[in-house]
Design brief:
With 97 residues, the chain is mostly helical. It contains seven helices and two strands; from the N terminus they run αβαααβααα. The relative contact order is 0.17.
């Protein structure tokens, strides 16, 4: 991955990391990512927290969905060779960064 791409990914991480603790959590996503158009939120099946957790989990390592994503894990998600193996479900929503 190019240094330019790494820098852009890091900039996105910093923007999302509202608490500045170097980890992304559901609390960081509140106010940054809107769930109002999420199908399960709209029909009342899920809360905002559940929708945000699902989105956050899309960036977490496949076998370690603990609700916390590190800067390293976030970068790993966007590493093209790893990205191909993962679902692009959550990535489409983050492209605007």
């Amino acid at each position: 991955m190019s240094e330019r791409r790494k820098k852009l990914i890091n900039m996105a991480f910093v923007k999302i990391d509202k608490t500045g603790d170097g980890q992304l959590t559901v609390e960081d996503l509140k106010g940054v990512y809107s769930v109002k158009h999420h199908k399960k939120y709209m029909n009342g099946e899920w809360t905002e927290e559940q929708c945000l957790r699902e989105f956050l989990d899309s960036f977490d390592t496949p076998n370690e969905k603990d609700g916390v994503v590190s800067a390293k894990g976030f970068l790993y998600f966007f590493d093209l060779t790893k990205f191909i193996r993962w679902t692009i479900k959550g990535a489409v929503n983050i492209i605007w960064f």
